[in-house]
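#struct-queue
[09:14] JT: dropping the first one here, sequence first, then the structure tokens:
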Amino acid sequence: MFLRRKIVRQSGKEYVYWQLVENERRNGKVRQKVICTVGREEEMDRDRVDKMVAALASQTHKLQVLDLEKDLILKHTQEYGALVVLQRLWDELGIGDE
């Protein structure tokens, strides 16, 4: 299953919908079956999507939704990017070579 962004053009206007779609095989060919239309894109916001995902996840024992704001605790972070860039500049410019 996956989410598909569906664009419908009607009377010179464009409407964008999100659909939950499932692939199934019929007569040796893969066909896509729309399970449900989730809603119009302009009516969707992150909070609504989060609530929908949590509601769906509560109906299964195979999936668990993690709330990154609550469930993720960083104990230690370290930045390497700046050090790598400076080391490369140091080497390319030949600083320290005699």
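[09:21] JT: and here's the second one, same format:
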Amino acid sequence: MTTARSFPPSILGHFRSAARRYRGVLGHPGAPRFFLAAALARLGVAMTGLGLLFSIQHATGSFAAAGAATGAFALAEAVIGPQIARLTDRWGQTATVPVAVLVHVSAVVVAIATAGRAPFGITLAIVVVAGVAIPQPGALSAARWSRLLPEPDALRTAFALEANVNDAVFLSGPILVTLIGTSLAPWAGSAAAGILVATGCVALSLQRSTAPKPRRRPERGADIHRSTLLAPPFLAALGVNLGLGCFFGAVPLLVTAAATAEGRQPFIGLVLALSSAASIVAGAMYGALRSTPQPRTVQLIASVVLTLAVVVGAVWPALPGLAIMLLVGGTAIAPLLASSSQIVQATVVPQELTQGFTWINSASAAGIAASAALTGRLVAQGGAEAAMPPLMMLVLIAVMAAASAFRTRTPVD
């Protein structure tokens, strides 16, 4: 009975310790304000792609046109985003973010207005502009945390918190934009996304005290500074996020195909939510750790867990097996994202920090695009079962990249 009575207080003590760690990082001056502003903007970003899909499909009556537009948007964001981040590092968030917001929101409005009325090529070009200019609130927030918190333990907790927000917004964003678009008008979801992006990013850019200092003039040794984006630990983190993106890109198609084949379409949303739920729990636990493990070790272990989860899906490619895959694989997501941010912060020099965080996002986006295209074709030919072996090979990219980090003599601690 003594053990039974002492067990709940022990668990409660761990929760209290975790809560203290999260309160600690949010207790720094200015932290709650920029964190909430960035979270608001991230919710808008999570709604933008699907909002464009609904708007353009309704205006043109073509899913092909809508798919091409959203694909062009994502590609432009992934390829050009780091170059916009470079300008942010050079001129500062206060100077660049409002301009990017203005261009992005204006382009979205014009794209929706011209869809179905002007030649599709014009709409597509405008959508590309919207993708180029969309702000990266996650990278902007991570750069502020890096400036605010010099302690590795505190940074780990902050980045875990960011990973949890990422899971939450990409879980709730598509649901919210669907509700708004179906309840009001197809373009209303895009309007709501634009308002959230603009409000959050402008509020973020007005907070000067926590913003990283701009680096308008190259410092001596700038050639060395530029090479930090080619540092082995950073490149390994890029590879890990490329593999993680492959997982992200395949999962919705696999679950949809399996559920449709089994007549269980109502369960699609619930099964997809399992990975986000597991990631949120894992991220909260990772951020609450009392000591900080080496990020490269976390990346290797989490990548192996992700790969083993895909093996489960390959062995049992029915909906229950995929549900287990998402539940197990979800536990790896937040630790991978948080440890990637830790590696960027420890590897990349301050004048390139926003670029570093944005490149991580771009690597994931590239994985999503490649995996979605391949998985879609394979699913169309042979169902979810046919797509699982190639997905295993793609996710192994993360394991190989994480393992390569151990070959360098400059570990990121």
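[09:30] RK: nice, looked through the second one.
[09:31] RK: The chain is about 80% helix and 0% strand.
[09:31] JT: good to know. The chain has two domains: 10-217, 218-413.
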